[in-house]
Amino acid sequence: MKYLSVITIVIALIGSSFVWAPTNSDEEGINFETLSFEEAIQKAKKENKLIFLDAYAVWCGPCKMMDRTTFKSKKVGDVFNENFINIKIDMEKGEGPAIARRYQVRAYPTMMLINGEGKVEKRILGAVRDTQLLQEVNDFVK
Fold it and tell me: What span is annotated as the signal peptide, if there is one (predicted)?
């Protein structure tokens, strides 16, 4: 009987962890859209916004650090989700190498604000904290 009670408690705890597990909709920070670069350009034109492109590589430590910190900041998410079309592209896969050549990406992370015509309005090199990133884009925020 004692083992049955322990098993019941363990099952209840495991089950409740699924109920309380966070979902993507509850996450704070930048909402990166799953768009091709061309789709992002078209959306930027249509919505009259700039694209925020995070040009990264999977092996890049500072890129991973920004994913865990800067890009998860509520302050950053509030500003970026309202003002920009946010996309992340691995510069070593898919369309990434062509974009890296087009925009001369030579270091990671490289972040860019790009207009609907494909012109770079702002380039940010290297890892930055949330307050630094917000300062960098301040002139482009409505």
Answer: 1-21
